[in-house]
Design goal:
The protein has one domain: HUPs (Rossmann fold). By secondary structure, the chain is α/β, with parallel strands linked by helices. Helix 3 crosses helix 4. Helix content is 28%, strand content 28%. It has 6 helices and 13 strands. Strand 3 and strand 4 form a beta hairpin.
């Protein structure tokens, strides 16, 4: 029976971000959540566990205050969680996150069959952690997956590409990054939340792992996007259509 790992990230909930009159972003009242794409990864791990047996394990690297994310991940159906925690993990670069996850998976969770990551994180959306993690573990990586099927010691997936859909089969263990349309993440109920507190959690401190260097990701500034509308009106006769086309050309919309 397969051991399936779902990696996730605790990110700012964008619903709580406010725009100041000067155009800056106000994070003073924000809350946090498991990233939207990572919810799909967790959901798919649980669905595969339900279909093929085995276990679904949630893994994350974050600050100690992110314990709420562990309970959320467990309430979504995972069997246990590994929490790599340190105050310095607030600004990890993708390669550092991958290094932490790789060491914990290699030394604490082996053997495993499948690792599932979201397409990208909801905040930075670098799309690097999954491929970097696969490289460090020396296993195949398939990205942009919209359907997964396990068959013994191999996995068959449908991968969305520009030209259409690729169907790929690779031996396990492997890593996949999944698209949002692979499933609809469940909403945990009260019973799920209560059950989550009884599931095992392994907390791993920074000094238990190999050094990854100081966090090197620095956000210099953030500005809110702005949309300006001219609200210019046009009629429907030939002269107005000509004026409309001329206006679009003047703005560089058409040539």
């Amino acid at each position: 029976m397969p051991t399936i790992i779902a990696c996730f990230k605790w990110v700012v909930d964008e619903a709580y971000i406010r725009r100041t009159p000067s155009g800056d972003l106000d994070f003073s009242s924000v809350d946090y959540k498991i990233g939207d794409y990572d919810r799909n990864a967790i959901e798919e791990a649980v669905r595969l566990r339900d279909a093929f047996g085995g276990s679904a394990i949630a893994v994350t690297a974050s600050v100690p205050e992110a314990t709420k994310s562990i309970k959320d991940a467990l309430s979504r159906g995972t069997d246990q969680a590994y929490f790599i925690a340190d105050a310095s993990f607030a600004n990890l670069e993708s390669s550092q996150t991958a290094a932490l996850l790789a060491e914990v998976i290699r030394t604490r969770i082996q053997p495993f069959d499948l690792i599932i990551c979201g397409e990208g994180s909801s905040d930075l959306y670098a799309q690097q952690v999954g491929p970097r993690l696969a490289e460090k573990l020396g296993i195949p990586c398939i990205s942009f997956i919209q359907k997964i099927s396990l068959d013994g010691g191999q996995i068959t997936v449908e991968r969305r590409v520009e030209e259409g859909i690729e169907v790929i089969t690779v031996p396990l263990p492997a890593l996949v990054t999944v698209l949002p349309d692979i499933n609809v993440p469940r909403i945990p109920g009260v019973k799920d939340t209560l059950m989550a507190s009884k599931k095992p959690v392994v907390t791993i401190k920074k000094d238990e792992l190999a050094p990854i260097g100081e966090p090197c990701l620095q956000t210099v500034s953030l500005k809110a996007s702005r949309m300006e509308r001219t609200c210019e009106r046009f009629g429907t006769d030939a002269a107005e259509i000509t004026r409309f086309v001329g206006s679009l050309r003047k703005k560089g919309v058409i040539f």
